[in-house]
Design brief:
This protein is of the alpha+beta class. The chain contains eight helices and six strands. Strands 1, 2, 3, 4, 5 and 6 form a six-stranded antiparallel β-sheet that branches.
Length: 339
């Protein structure tokens, strides 16, 4: 007993074309998207790194690190009982503070402060640009840096060499991204007396990256839509002719040899050629079937005639017929004698 054949899943030709195109498009989009995004990100980061280096060099040129070392060593006129920064009366602090304020004029996107090591495990704030620009939000001189809320490890790296933070820093309170770095400050003898922390507003960079991502998404969505429309439009005529071929094949199985109605083609292709040859085949098969039907009818007549002759011969040659024939002859003979 043969098992019934299991029906195979059906997928239209146009979708067989669309699915690989979509897969290829998705691959191209992914490569292009992440490639362009990384290229823009690296380009922007390189620009900001150049800005960081130029700010570092600007500060190194305008700041007196020896005076800064004297301040951080404890020789400072600072009334800690007074409100900050009113308690800071040391003119050396404000002279060095002018250098940090000048950074704002040099690059308004930069926020900057200095720090120094109190001991081998603790860091403290030194100068703060905001002490002049926005005093209520500035760090008091000598305040210890909280290891839990600040990137203390990165600041320690900055005391050894210029250190660029690997990722953008995000300020939740201000909803701003920063490109950050830390670099050492050296006195006239070349000794490290502290470090400088630079935060560069990277909001424009994030906006550009997000804008690029949005534009790329819109472009590739449009490309996908265009590909879909083109494929469906181009394959509609082809698939309609293939569907006609399929329907004609099913009609032929039922004995209907009606030819396919072909649309005019400016140029022939594989499908149109197949459809034309299919019509030619239909005509030949139909003619051959009609010829076979005529031959079958003729053969039936011939067979019926031969069968009738054989039946007659069988009757004539039978004993009953011979006996009957003999009796008929005797009857005719007797009638002849009477006459």
């Amino acid at each position: 007993m043969t098992m019934p054949t299991r029906a195979k899943p059906y997928l239209g030709l146009r979708y067989k074309i669309l699915i690989p195109l979509f897969a290829l498009g998705a691959l191209i989009f992914s490569l292009s998207y992440f490639g362009a995004r990384n290229y823009l990100r690296n380009t922007i980061y390189n620009i900001m790194e150049e800005d960081i280096v130029s700010i570092r060099d600007f500060v190194a040129a305008c700041m007196d690190e020896d005076a800064l070392q004297a301040l951080t060593s404890g020789d400072v006129k600072y009334d800690t009982s007074a409100d900050w920064p009113a308690g800071m009366t040391d003119p050396r602090y404000w002279e060095q503070q002018d250098c940090l304020v000048a950074v704002y004029d040099y690059n308004p996107r930069a926020e900057i402060y200095t720090y120094y090591a109190v001991n081998e495990t603790t860091l403290a704030y030194g100068l703060d640009q905001w002490a002049t620009l926005l005093p209520e939000d500035s760090y008091p001189f000598g305040e210890l840096i909280d290891a839990e809320t600040s990137n203390v490890e990165d600041l320690w790296f900055g005391l050894a060499d210029t250190y660029i933070y690997p990722e953008l820093e995000y300020d939740e309170e201000l909803d701003v991204y920063y490109y950050a770095a830390a670099a050492p400050l050296q006195n006239s003898r070349g000794d490290v007396v502290g470090g400088i922390s630079i935060f560069l507003d990277a909001g424009w960079a994030v906006e550009n990256i997000q804008a690029l991502s949005k534009n790329l998404l819109m472009i590739f969505t449009g490309i996908f839509a265009l590909i879909t429309i083109l494929v469906l439009t181009i394959t509609r005529k082809t698939t309609s002719e293939l569907t006609a071929l399929k329907d004609a094949s099913m009609r032929v199985a039922d004995g209907d040899y009606t030819p396919i109605s072909l649309s005019p083609h400016t140029m022939d292709d594989e499908v149109s050629t197949l459809a034309r040859l299919f019509n030619t085949m239909l005509g030949k098969v139909h003619a051959r079937e009609e010829s076979l039907q005529i031959e079958v009818e003729q053969l039936k007549v011939q067979i019926d005639t031969e069968k009738r002759n054989m039946d007659v011969k069988e009757i004539v040659e039978s004993e009953f017929f011979q006996d009957l024939k003999q009796r008929a002859a005797e009857v005719r003979k007797q009638r002849s004698k009477k006459e």
